[in-house]
């Protein structure tokens, strides 16, 4: 029983690592890719949807594993009941109490895992939303800087054009 629980914990930790690694990799790829703000926001939105889908899939997986654990616990409980009935009624009462505790524990653990997955997904969504906002702010700032630079250059070009026109006019008048 303890070994099975350790395997379940290892699997859960591995899945959490896969999720976190996927998110970090996707966010890094999105933020490092040379794209326009519109494309970046579109890509981030797509990634958010993908994360929502994956979190839904993982919630289903967690629920399925919980069902499997409940089913396994139920099977083991039935076996223990038969042995207990053969030996004495006191042992049967003890087994029934243990069974109820196991069911409650499995249910509690399943709910805890589902809650943890939801909390993690909500946290990732907030992080992605914050990153999208930061990226949009950076794009807007860079666009303003480019607009300012273009304006300054166009003023310089207009000035030079006037000077050149004045020189041409003065050389034609002489």
Automatic annotation (TrEMBL):
Region (Disordered): 138-174
Segments of skewed composition (Basic and acidic residues): 157-166
Domain of life assignment: Bacteria
UniProt keywords, alphabetically: Membrane, Transmembrane, Transmembrane helix
Keyword Protein biosynthesis belongs to the record: no
Ranges that cross the membrane: 12-33
InterPro entries: Desiccation-related_membrane, YtxH
The keyword Transcription regulation is assigned to this record: no
Name assigned to this protein: Uncharacterized protein
Organism field: Lederbergia galactosidilytica
């Amino acid at each position: 029983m303890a070994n099975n629980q350790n395997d379940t914990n290892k699997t859960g930790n591995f899945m959490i690592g896969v999720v976190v690694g996927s998110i970090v990799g996707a966010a890094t790829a999105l933020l490092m890719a040379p794209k326009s703000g519109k494309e970046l926001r579109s890509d981030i939105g797509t990634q958010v949807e993908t994360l929502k889908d994956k979190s839904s899939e993982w919630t289903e997986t967690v629920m399925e594993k919980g069902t499997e654990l409940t089913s396994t616990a139920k099977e083991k409980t039935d076996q223990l009941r038969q042995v207990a009935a053969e030996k004495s009624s006191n042992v049967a009462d003890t087994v029934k109490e243990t069974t109820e505790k196991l069911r409650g524990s499995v249910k509690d653990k399943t709910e805890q895992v589902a809650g943890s997955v939801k909390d993690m997904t909500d946290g990732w969504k907030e992080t992605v939303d914050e990153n999208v906002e930061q990226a949009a702010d950076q794009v807007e700032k860079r666009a303003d800087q480019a607009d300012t630079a273009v304006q300054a250059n166009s003023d310089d070009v207009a000035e030079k054009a006037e000077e050149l026109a004045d020189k041409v006019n003065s050389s034609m008048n002489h």
